[in-house]
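User: Need the bound-state model for NAP:
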Amino acid sequence: MVAQIISGNEVAKSIRAEIKNEVVQLKKVGIEPGLVVIIVGEDPASQVYVRKKGEACDELGFCSETVRLPASTTEEELLRLVDKYNKDKKFDGILVQLPLPKHISEEKVLMRIDPGKDVDGFHPVNVGKMVVGSADCYLPCTPHGVQELLIRSGNDPAGKHVVVLGRSNIVGKPVACILVQKAKGADATVTICHSRTKNLAEITRQADILIAAIGSPNFVKADMVRDGVVVIDVGVNRINDPTAKGGTRLVGDVDFEAVSKKAKAITPVPGGVGPMTITMLMKNTLHAAKIHHNYKG
Ligand code: NAP
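Assistant: Bound-state model below.
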C-alpha cells in the first residue's frame, strides 16, 4: 500500500491563506489582530518558537510584539506584565512561552491571562469550555491542528476508533477531548494510552486513527498498527545521525519508514503536525480579534 503523506506544510499554507484574506477584510474596517509573546530566559528551543511566531504575525499582517525578559525575572514582575497586556486593547492574544524558569509558577501565570486573550487555550476557563464542547473557546493549538489535518486530508474521524498515545495536558488529553465531542470533525471513539497502559500494541492495533504524542523516537513499529491505519505523529525528537547535516536530525514517535508501508495515510516529521501549531495560534488570535471588535463579517 502506498500511503497518503499528509503534508502539514500544505495544510498550514492553505489555512494561512484563508487567515490572510480575513485580515485584509478586517483591516478595511480598522481592525488589526494583535499578538504579544512573552519569553523569560534563554532556552534555545523557545527562542526559535518565539521567532517563528513573530514571523507568522508579519506574514499574515498581524500587529505583534515580543517581550524578552531575563531568567532572573520574578513571578510578581511577570504577573504585572500579564496584567498590563490584559488591559492593552492593541493585543487580542497573549502568549507566555513555556517552559518558564523553575522559580515561576506556570499555573499562576497561565491563570492570570484574561481567558478572552488566552490564544494558547491553556486557561482553565478555556479547557472547561473545550470539555463541554462550547463553540466559544480557544482550542489548544497542537491538538486543534491535529483535528484540522485529519479533516482537511479527507480522514474524518467520525465513527472511527482513535487511539491516542500520551496523556499530557498540552497534547494527549486535549486531542482526545476534541475528537470525542459530538460535533462535525469529531464524533470519534477514543482510547487514551500512557506509560502504565498494559498490552499497548494490542490496543494500537485496533486503531483506525493512531495519534502518537509520547516523545520517544521511532517508538511505534509496523507490528503495532493494522493495515490501512491513519497515523498522526506529533512527536518531535532529535536523534544522532552521523550522515545528517550537523550530526543530528528530527524524527517522530513513529517509525515512519516501516509504518508508512502499512498505513493508508501518515504525517511526516518534520513537516506534519509541527507547521500546524503556529498556524492554529494565528487562527485563535484572529478569532479573538473578531470577538473583541464584535466583528460579524
Ligand atoms: P509529555 O508531557 O512528556 O507526555 C508524554 C506522554 O507520553 C505521557 O502521558 C506519558 O505517559 C506518555 N508516554 C511516554 N512514554 C510512553 C510509552 N513508552 N508508552 C506509552 N506512553 C508513553 O509530552 P508532550 O508535551 O505531550 O509531547 C509529546 C511529544 O510531542 C514530544 O515529542 C513533543 O516534542 C511533541 N510535541 C510536538 C508539538 C508540535 O507542535 N509538533 C507540540 C507539542 C509537543 P505518563 O503520563 O504515564 O508519563
